[in-house]
Fold:
Amino acid sequence: MRALRPWHWLVVAALSLLALLLLWVGIAYGGLPRLWSRHEHKRIGRRDELISYTAQDIPADPINLRLKGDAAAIGCAFDRAGWTLADNVSVRSAVKIAASVVLHRAYPAAPVSSLYVHDKVQDLAYQLDEGSSADRRHHVRLWQVAPGDWLAAATYDRGVGLSLFTLQITHHIGRDVDAERAAIGTLVTASGARLLGTESSRLPPGKWHRNGGGDRYRTDGLIQIYSLGSGCAHR
Structure:
C-alpha cells in the first residue's frame, strides 16, 4: 500500500473538518431544534405564558415591558440614551457581528436574532454595547401588537457561545431580566414616560426558567406598562 504524501494528509484533514462542520450544521440547525420544540410543547401543553419564541417554536425571552406610544417616541427615548437601532439580519450583518466578537471591534448596530410573539417577528430592536464589541450588550426587542401598543423583551447578552440544547451559536443572556426591565423603565421615564402599572406575564414568579438558548433566568413575572405619549419630553 502506497504511503500518502503530505499534501494528501492536508486534503484528508480538510475534508474531515468539512464533514464535521456539515454534521454540526445538520444537528444544530435541523435535528436538535425539532426535538427540543417537541419537548417544550409536551411540557407546556398550551401557550399560557406571555413570552417570545424562536423560529423553531422554542420558548425564548420573556415579555417584561409594554410601551404605549408611537415608533417616533420610542426611537427618541432610546436615541437620547445612546442606544442604537439594530441592523436587520443579513449575510453582511452576520459577518460584521462575527468580526466584532472575534476581533473585538465595535458594532453599535449589531443585529439581534429573530424572535416571535403572536407568530410575528420583532418590529424594532435597540441595543447598547457594553465594552469594545457586540459580545456583551443590553438590548430590547419590540413587537407592535396594536396601533401605539408595543410588547417588549429586555435582556442582557453576557457573551457568545453555543446553545445548551441546540448547539447553535448564540448570545447567552443574563439571569436578572427584571434588572433589564428596570433599566428600560428608567430610560423611558427620563424622556417623559409615565408608569401606568403592571400586568402578569403568567410566568410563575421566583422560579427558574430557561430561554431558547438554554439560559436560566428568574423574574417576578410582571410586565411594566409605560405611556410614552407622542414624543420625548424636552430636556
